[in-house]
Amino acid sequence: MHRFTAPVRTSALRHNRLALAILLAASAPAALAQQVGDDAEDEARRMDTVTVTAEQIARQALGSSIITVDDIERRPPANDLSELIRTMPGVNLTGNSASGQYGNNRQIDIRGMGPENTLILVDGRPISSRNSVRMGRSGERNTRGDTNWVPADAVERIEVLRGPAAARYGSGASGGVVNIVTKKPTGDFGGSVTAYANAPEHSEEGASRRVGFNLSGPLADALSFRLYGNVARTEADDISLNADTPGGQGDDVIVPPAGREGVRNRDIDGLLRWDANDDHVVELQAGFSRQGNIYAGDRAVSSNGTELLEQLAESGAETNIMYRRSASLTHRGSYAWGSSRLSLANEDTDNKRLNEGLAGGPEGSINTDAVFSTSNLRSWRLDGEANINLDAGVEQVVTVGFEYRDERLDDPFSVTQSADGGDGVPGLDDRSGRNDMTTEAVFVEDNIYATERLILTPGLRFDHSDKFGGNWSPSLNVSYDLTDTWMLKGGIARAYKAPNLYQSNPGYLYYTRGNGCPYNFPNLGGGCYIQGSADLDPETSINKEIGVAYDDDRGLTASLTYFDNDYRDKIVTGLEPQGVNGATQIFAWENAPEASVRGVEGSLNLPLDGNGGRTLKWTNNLTWMLDNENEETGQPLSIIPEYTLNTGLDWQATDDLDLLLTGTFYGDQEPPTLSIGGAPLEGDALEERDAYNVWNLGVGYTVSAAWRLGAGVNNIFDERLFREANNTSQGAATYNEPGRLYYVSLTARF
């Protein structure tokens, strides 16, 4: 995590109350943890309270949110943290295209830029395990994403950063950044154990169970530790769930459109912290996680399914298992001039899957031999920064830093597909499932307190890839206090994303049979192939936002933001053949000229009773998408609601009893009008998904300092929606909205 010591500037922060409130909210858990330590430990951990993350200063931009420990406790996710992250402004769950091919494996999408443009961090370190999953011709990966590697009980807070302020993080942050911050060691030995279970009202929908623990404390005068673990299981939806939909009927249908697959989680992670002295801290972290799916019959384009898929779904088989190993060594220092951080991190993912149709069957379907293959993705990352306090006439904090990343992918199965021996297909003479990329980056950012009311944050990042050359990412964020309560804020930045290690490998040949052949170049009898390309350009975007924010002494806050992203060079599968080999046609990944993403975000938080709403408060946020389409084809980038409104009524009824009523309103969702291959769609394939809403109620009771009980009902009014097919023939009905569900949780602290 990028950290720096904020200069002592009471007058400036007094006028910038929103920034101050966010800073205090973010640092509160660390401050509480320090109260349990002795004076020596308090001083040794001084950096954890007086330093703030660069994201927190960047939150002077409007596009920022924090999910706290209390939020997680009052609204516990069944398993994946995306259930909470999706409730932030500007955030939805979508696929990476409008195809709906893996509709129930939706991931975090910030401001409509797609999951692949959302960078997931854990304690400031990028998580890239999903990049070990092969990408199909629609741009989809059959993956749950990277938000489920940290169990809910281990999270201290989740920081969501949207828009221009996220550009400083380099490739993959065009939409925004989600930083999952884990709990740190405390001064006294202590911890917690949490058990959670839910029970869907409809038996064909999967239930969840999980147990997690978190321990921390001192080992010696200057040495402390933190250890967390988790065991969780979410059952897959029954194979019959979507049988009554149009795609689930017919004599030839063996497997209806799949519901949500299940997941088995095993997580363990440890951290040792050495407070060498008052100004220097060293942390050593290591972790291991296993995620195995429980198959629900999912496949990309096969409409009818096969008996093998039916057998796998009915037996609760694991068809893919991901093993993730991580380790890091971090030093943080505090000096008279500022602070520094230096980190070395390794991430190693084994993605073990039953071989899919890549090598001859329907795209994305499991092959009849039911044999596993494994891809390995390994990443080394060395990065650091110095944060320098300056007062050269104007108070400012200058952050300078660097990053070196080496990524290596080895997927032997990705090059097993042949095209009549490869004759006439360029680049297939010397094929390898191995591909790698090295990236070096340097960046500088200056937080300038120009006046009592004006804060300027210019930044510049330069990335150089050994595959795709250099990329400049300039940015400018501005915050101006119009009055003591009103603030005007804006920003502009250039962001980018490098092609992934499948798209850029010329040896990667993806076979789509006839389903992936473009409309203007129909199947010649041998199907169509999509070949990786080393000649791709990185995707780029110019991200802009402007808005106002209000914050008064009573706890009333509000904001309204307009964002506009010009998205260029999005990587898509070309619709013009690069060559013909007998009865087959060869297509390649290429850059689309331009896309447009525009929308409005708003928030309104009202204290209704108690000091600043401590007893009763009403919170709201709204995202309204104005534009989200490929300007060349007129097609949506993903299927996303026209608007998303999250509302919540939080009542602290007594010192021990709290209640939370939340609702989410989703606007109409429009499907594409063209198939993946460019053919005009008609009939049911053009049907929209109408607006709907889901309401939840949670109750928490603190039995004692050692025990807390929680219970609740999700989807109170049982608003169920069904997935109607496996591809664009379903219209916008691309995913299941599960029905009413009851849950209970119990936490023991010691």
TrEMBL record:
Organism whose genome encodes this protein: Coralloluteibacterium stylophorae
Main location: membrane
Cellular component terms per the entry's GO annotation: cell outer membrane
Residue ranges of the motif TonB box: 49-55
Classification via SUPFAM superfamilies: Porins (SSF56935)
Keyword Iron set for record: yes
A Gene Ontology BP annotation from the UniProt entry: siderophore transmembrane transport
Membrane topology field: Multi-pass membrane protein
Molecular-function annotations in GO: colicin transmembrane transporter activity; enterobactin transmembrane transporter activity; siderophore uptake transmembrane transporter activity; signaling receptor activity
UniProt entry keywords in alphabetical sequence: Cell outer membrane, Ion transport, Iron, Iron transport, Membrane, Receptor, Signal, TonB box, Transmembrane, Transmembrane beta strand, Transport
Signal sequence range: 1-33
Region entry Disordered, spans: 240-260, 412-434
Domain TonB-dependent receptor-like beta-barrel: 265-716
NCBIfam families in the cross-refs: PRK13524.1, PRK13528.1, TonB-siderophor
InterPro entries on file: Beta-barrel_TonB (IPR000531), Beta-barrel_TonB_sf (IPR036942), PirA/FepA/PfeA (IPR058134), Plug_dom (IPR012910), Plug_dom_sf (IPR037066), TonB-dep_rcpt-like (IPR039426), TonB_box_CS (IPR010916), TonB_rcpt_CS (IPR010917)
Short motif TonB C-terminal box, span: 733-750
Protein name: TonB-dependent siderophore receptor
Cellular location(s): Cell outer membrane
Family that this chain belongs to: Belongs to the TonB-dependent receptor family.
Domain (TonB-dependent receptor plug) ranges: 64-177
The keyword Lyase is annotated on this UniProt entry: no
